[in-house]
Every structure is written in structure tokens, then in C-alpha cells.
């Protein structure tokens, strides 16, 4: 089945929308899943919230996925439930995947962090730096699941900030991938080569949808990170980073591209075409860079000549704040300078009369 044949809007899980996704949101959906899906409580969080796995398919290739290890990274969770809708349909769009793969998904590893909308768990520990100590119940749950399931591939599903661009281009890194290192030298083991080839397969699909908006995440080795640890255990592991798409702060467009990436990866595994891909092409994907701000105000000296040097640029980043069950985006001044090589998701040039008028109408104007 070709991805182009999927009518995404018909399978999109509309009960999940925006950035604030909690256990309360997904628990209802778990109850709606058909008997084709095995839903199992595999443990509890620090604050006692259930952590579930969802298992489906009956093939030899075993794929383990987990999302919201960082509680405020919810885009991939939304994409997971879109994926479940595809496999839950009577049309059985991808019978080859179901025949050749067994898929186990932990849709929300850190429900406490999700509720508080924070990266950390309730003990203020970053679970993605706890792979060796496994000091937290959530870390133990993931490791136990990994050892019990004995996967052939792992998908480590995350989200990244709006600051990332692709290479030195003004393209946002809408999706970024990483084949984690398994040693200090960033050597290419057999498992890492498989990770790279699978990323190449996804990149080929995504370049047709969002050309130039796929980045390669930094591969600095850290044994405390889960991806590096599982790669060290010779299990091909892929980091997915859901990033920014223009004007898509709710990450509704990005979730679609994550969904497409996951399906294409599963197809590649199930159809056994991984060997036909060249891991060297992985290095053709440009590095992530950090050249974006949410808002740039060029020629700020025209606002206040005494405060800003000629040609100065004010750079603002949004601070994500949980307010009444929704995420508000509050602009905060991050930097002031020439910033000639930086990009803005929204840019105002005070030397332009129209831009200047638009800037004064913005709600954050009086806070500068």
C-alpha cells in the first residue's frame, strides 16, 4: 500500500489536538481499541498513574516504540494514535506489516511529566539520562519491557524546539532523525548501520513531502541516554524528533509527517528492503543547526535609538506555559545583536513601514 493512498484526515485521531496531551486524554482512547490490540498495564509512574503498552501484529520482526519519555513532547503521541487508527480499520491497509511485524508501543512513558507539561518526571529526573542508573520507576518499566519483548528495532519518539533549522538554510527542521552512537568514537556497528538505512528510507519518503526540512540530530555519545544504551545492546534504535512546521505551533502538520515516517519505516522492515539501502546516504542528511528564533525584530534602533545600536536585532523565543489546560506561547527576549545569520519564524523589519505597523499591533509590543 502506497502512503499516497492514505487519506490522512480520515484516520487522524481528532480527540487529540494541540500540545497538551495527558494520560486522561489517551486513557479514553485505549478503552476504545478493538480486540486486535492487546492493551497491558506494565507499571505505574512516580505519582501512581498507569503506564500501558499496546501490542498488535503477529510477525517475526519485533518493533518497540515509546513516546512522551519527556512529558512536554506530545506530537509523536498524537501520531501513534493516528497509526493505531490505520491498523484498526476494517480495510487493513497494511496487511503485510501486520503479517510480518509485531509492534509494541508505550504511548506515554512519563504521564506525570505530561500532566505537569514538563520534560522531567515527578522526581525531576530526565528519564533519557537515566538509562544506566534506572533510578526511576519509568526507566525500569521501559527497560523491563525492552528485555521481555526483545525487539529487533526500537523507535525512540521525541519532540524538538523551534530553534532548529536544517544545515545553514532557512528551512525549519520539521523532522530530525538520529542513529545513536554506541561508543565514544561514533563507530558504525551492524545495528547502527541498520538504523542509518532505516532513516534513509524515511528520508526518501519525507523529502517528497517536506523537501529540505529533514535534519540529522547530533550523534554525540552518552551512555546515559536510552537510545545509545539500546544501540550498545546491538538493537537498531532510531531517534525521531518532531520539530516545527511553518505556523504550526500546535504541531498538527508535524504529526502527519511523523505518522508517514513511522509507516514508511514499518513498510521497509516488513518488506525486507533494508539491505538495498546504503547507510552512507544517512550522512547526506544535513545536520541540525540552531539558527531559528520565533520572532526577529530587525533594525530595532528605529524603535528606541538610545537603547539599541544601529542595525540591532531583537530575537524572541516563545516560553510554553500551561494555562487552564492549554499551552500558551509567551514571547521572551532571548538575545539582542546583529544576528545576521539567524532566521525568524516571523520577522519584522522596522525600516519597513508596513512591518512597523504590524509590529505595533502585536500583543507583545508593550512588553518589549
From TrEMBL:
InterPro entries the UniProt entry points to? Peptidase_M14
Q: Give residue ranges for domain Peptidase M14.
A: 4-269
The record's listing under Pfam families reads: Peptidase_M14
Segment forming the signal sequence: none
Which family does the UniProt entry place this protein in? Belongs to the peptidase M14 family.
Q: What is this protein called?
A: Peptidase M14
